[in-house]
Amino acid sequence: MNWSAVSAVAEVLGAIGVVVTLLHISRQVRENTRSIRRSTTHDALRSIADFNQFIASDPHLVDLFWRGSADPADLSGVEWQRFVSLASTLIRKFELLYLDYSSGSLSDDIWEAQVNNIQTWMTKPGVVRWFDELGSHVHPSFRRFVATLQPAR
Fold this sequence. Notes:
By secondary structure, this protein is mostly helical. The chain has six helices and no strands.
């Protein structure tokens, strides 16, 4: 028996085993990445839908949120504070969408649709005022992104 030949065959079989293992791991990583992206997308969109449902469930909140968005000067001091809380919730949801997109966890298609939604809200006078007063509380890169959406003042 030629031990050199046996050794060479064993090395080839070992190399094939390593390649097959690496291919399997690569496939598993791709599947895991897709799963994470689907989950992130679902969670992000569900979060926005839940916020909308919460606001819509109470006629007083609907009124407060729309009046505050359109003209914050129309709100009393207490109403402004309630509006700030609601706007903070929505803006944090938008910030998380942005950070998910920036990290590659949210697809371009979903992000493009959400940019329109974000721009709609971030240009409303009440939300602009919120951002002027409290914008330093959000992630700096999100702040820079929002600045590109708002008209020059």
